[in-house]
Amino acid sequence: MRYVVGYTANARGHDAVHLAVALARNHDVSLDLVLVIPEDSPFNAVYPPEAGYTDILNEQAQRWLDEGLALVPDDVTARAHIRRGDSEAQTLIDAAVEFDAAALVIGATNSGLFKRFTIGSVASSLLHSSPVPVALAPHGYHRTEPITRLSCGFGTRPGADELLDVAVESARDRGLPLRLVSLLALDGGNSPGLADAAWVHAADRLAAVGGSIDPASASGSAADVPEPEIVVAQGRTIEEAVDRLDWEDGEILLIGSSRLAQHRATFLGSTANRILRALPVPMIVVPRDYTRQSA
Questions:
Q1: Residues 295, 278: Cα–Cα separation, whole Å
Q2: Could you identify which of 107, 114, 163, 279 might form a hypothetical disulfide with 12, taking C-beta atoms 3.0 to 4.6 angstroms apart as the criterion?
Q3: d(CA 190, CA 202)
Q4: At 254, phi and psi to the nearest 5?
Q5: Of 243, 232, 230, 240, residue with least CA distance to 187
Q6: pLDDT digits 0-9 by tens, 28-67
């Protein structure tokens, strides 16, 4: 299995590599670092077509990729690729399709607060059009140890059961504890009835998709993997509900695409955008109607 890493020669690219390594460890995944440089054009004054300029640009791009490969530890297989394109996002999508990648891994912009998200134009394009899951590393993400827990943002809208299927299978394959998270924004204060209803709904759907994690089928050290946990977090806003949750350093949050998404494409909805503003851990956005390889 392969993950495509959208690499840039800055902190955003380093964050993406760190997250990709954490996801790849103990899961038989190889990484493809892809650096996108602008398409040659006689109308592009920044990259003029003088003789030899393309070679100079390629040599610099290769040096940047070598720096990215140096961030990958010896126990993870990684390759480097230079791609040309007018759109960085579309070029990364094309590479993911070419390599039959199970996920695209990118970093947030450099302007965000430490371990928080600020979405740039490339990330925004990918989060609204990718045919494969997009894993987004928060600014300042340095962890390269294996992921320790998978959380799944769960609601009642169409597509929730498909996302839950992906979460259960991913947790089972990796031997990870699974946590189902329902976020309630309650402007009027606490509402035990709504919280209880959200918990019961999640429990019912978990049972319907066969949510028990079978230790014998997991690839990691699954003997101690607990049954999935259901947590309902409340706050005056979605952001406050996210803040009230306990997050592990090695955790990652899985969410589904908006119902506005095209078939088999990501689309980051308004609720997911609000979650991103408060989330301290990486997020994976799963395309609508996604058929999982083994993310």
A1: 24
A2: 107
A3: 19
A4: -105, 125
A5: 240
A6: 899 999 999 887 654 455 555 555 667 778 889 999 999 9
Strands 149-153 and 178-185: parallel
Burial class of 240 by CB neighbour count within 10 A (0 to 12, 13 to 18, 19+) = middle
Amino acid (1-letter code) at residue 142: H
Give residue 16's pLDDT.
Answer: 96
pLDDT in tens, 64-83: 999 999 999 999 999 999 99
Cβ burial of 231 (10 Å; 0-12, 13-18, 19+) is middle
Q: Are 137 and 17 in contact (CB under 8 A)?
A: no
Q: Which residue has the tokens 């079978």?
A: 214
Report in angstroms the alpha-carbon separations of 197 from 108, 158, 229, 230, 239: 35, 17, 16, 12, 21
The whole-angstrom separation of Cα 126 and Cα 131 is: 9
Q: How many CB atoms lie under 10 A from the CB of residue 131? A: 16
**How does strand 178-185 pair with strand 229-235?**
parallel
3-class state of residue 153 by DSSP? strand
CA 76/CA 43 separation, integer angstroms: 41
Q: Quick one: tokens of 92?
A: 């990364």
| Average pLDDT of span 168-194 | 79
DSSP, res 58: H
